[in-house]
């Protein structure tokens, strides 16, 4: 593992990346004990506080864990999919906000991915997943629910559907699609949507999942996508009319 002392990049960031790359490549396997702070400082020719900052960066990414005691130190962590959700969501949010991705394109991608979960979720969902979907439908129908709370409930509903597929790889991939794209969609369409219509479509999805009918679940998601695209189009047209 090496760094470039002449690089303008922060030294602690370079060290963190070097260790990160070693973990990702398998050079540092799971549960491997990292060299001590003193050893790393000598290896990279930096101060111990610089090494300590690098280790903090890695711990924040859940790539390492620290243990106290005679047998303690920093160890390569076994990263779980759940631990990486936040990074996936952050990355997806940044990509959507920093690139010229149209609402229609984002919506198309999100529902295409979610429909891939439909048959699996219909077959594998647990009673808890279904109960969450039903509870969120009930919550969304309550009068006085704020737009922020409705959006959070919307996300929770779709996360239960996705997680019901029982596939952690799909759940990880869709974490960004649901938790980054759904708030974006709600932000654009909330002024035009009918909550009653959304609840009805969500109920159709939950009914299909309860019946273990994958095709009906996918069809209900397609209907929800069409409703979302139509609402967005009406919002964009209204905005365009105001600017003329």
SSE order and pairing:
Blueprint: H1 11-25, H2 37-44, H3 48-60, E1 64-67, E2 73-76, H4 81-98, H5 103-124, H6 127-140, H7 147-163, H8 168-189, H9 195-210, H10 214-243
Antiparallel strand pairs: 1-2
Structure, explained:
This protein has 244 residues and is mainly alpha-helical. It has 2 domains: 11-76, Winged helix-like DNA-binding domain superfamily/Winged helix DNA-binding domain (Arc Repressor Mutant, subunit A, Orthogonal Bundle); 81-243, Four Helix Bundle (Hemerythrin (Met), subunit A) (Up-down Bundle), CATH 1.20.120.530. The protein is built from 10 helices and 2 strands, in the order αααββααααααα. A hairpin with a 5-residue loop joins strand 1 and strand 2 (73-76). Helix 2 (37-44) packs across helix 3, helix 5 crosses helix 8 (168-189) and helix 7 (147-163) packs antiparallel against helix 8.
